[in-house]
Amino acid sequence: MRVGQGFDVHALVEGRPLILGGVTIPFELGLAGHSDADVLLHAVCDALLGAGGLGDLGRHYPDTDAVHAGRDSREFVRDVAGQLAAGGWRVGNVDATVVAQRPKLGPYVGAMEANLAGDLGVDPGAVNVKATTTERLGWTGRGEGIAAMAVALLLPAS
Known about the structure:
GO terms for molecular function: 2-C-methyl-D-erythritol 2,4-cyclodiphosphate synthase activity; metal ion binding. By secondary structure, the protein is of the alpha+beta class.
């Protein structure tokens, strides 16, 4: 077994869609970033890459490469899953938490989990997404950004 953890954060800004877990969420602000800035998927990718000993998201999809501008982060997840499979690993499970004061994310968690499970090729029960606030404390509490953290378990493919 191999375990990895991931963390990501992006600032909330005007003029961008809010995309979390591959789900576009109605909100007046979106996340700033080179790709679609999906903090949840970025944290999951880092957890998976870490567990596989494959570095981090920035090494594979640098924000200095124009090909990744505006890119759908679900493509990153599918690519990482392919790299892991090629290395002889399969995803055992993923557990992730999104930290955002607002908007309320509960109604969208099921769709986020379904996207992740489908993109990773795992049973939906192997993916768990949670959402929490910081009780209005700190930069997430002030609505300046959204953070996500994830843990992933890899098992041998055979």
